Amino acid sequence: MNKPTTEALVLQILSACLLINTQGKWHAHFHLVAHCGWVDVWMEPSDTDYQDTSRPRPPSKYVTFTGTTRHPQSSLTEDEACQNLTELLAWVQGYLSMEAAA
Asked: Based on the structure, what is the number of domains in the chain?
């Protein structure tokens, strides 16, 4: 079985975030820094008051998927990068049917 490419996994994560946003329960935030090789995703309930600076830190997950000259991670293998992105995808997909906490 072929393992998915980095590009395919990143697109699947973005797609899941877009689907989550259409459900109306969560605001999925997707932050890709391709030149540094990392993705950060966080979820806010859809009724979040973004002006409230005292609100709790939202659930989030950050993964790296490649080493760069700016952020060297020579020990990160292709398999580990694939695993990192696969785990992030699974975490994001968990919000596809999850109710937002009140």
From this structure: 1
